[in-house]
Design brief:
Length: about 170
């Protein structure tokens, strides 16, 4: 499967989360998403400019593009993991760890704020434990992200597996 075929396949299976997808189909699609995002970011900068106070580019077109390719990218990731014999929801693990990390950070900030309001309390061991918890979650997220990339680069399972017949290309 080539670059154009992978793009056509990605859009034709827009929200398909079942079945299998080959390595070339997934990686050509990811290359398309990265290149298109970069080009659209340049167009955004040329058309809409940057915020004078922060210097951030106003990402109108690239944001719409990212939204448009979200479902095909998720579906293709699920199907790629199915092709290696793994459940597709593993594709969401880095996101789930990010949500857990945000929850830990926000709850830690609320607890620390509550402790600071009490008179005479010094920074407690709870803040140290919370900081260590955040670091542990960050390391877990990094390990899962690397593991996910490794899974996505594995060869297809030969023959049929629990998710269907091998992809045609």
């Amino acid at each position: 499967m080539g670059f154009v075929d992978a793009i056509r396949n990605g859009f034709s299976n827009y929200a398909t989360f079942s079945g299998r997808a080959s390595r070339p189909a997934y990686w050509w699609w990811m290359l398309f998403v990265i290149l298109a995002s970069a080009v659209l970011s340049g167009i955004d900068l040329a058309i809409f400019g940057a915020d004078p106070e922060t210097g951030d580019v106003r990402q109108r077109l690239s944001g719409l593009f990212q939204l448009a390719v979200l479902l095909p990218t998720l579906g293709l990731g699920f199907r790629r993991l199915h092709d290696t014999g793994r459940p597709g929801w593993y594709y969401l693990l880095p996101f789930l760890i990010s949500v857990a990390l945000m929850f830990v950070l926000l709850s830690g900030v609320m607890v620390a704020t509550g402790l600071d309001m009490e008179a005479g309390t010094a920074p407690s061991a709870g803040l140290i434990v919370g900081g260590l918890g955040v670091m542990v979650l960050w390391v877990v997220q990094l390990v899962i992200f690397i593991l996910l990339i490794w899974w996505l680069t594995r060869p297809s399972e030969a023959g049929e597996n629990a998710y269907g017949a091998p992809p045609s290309a």
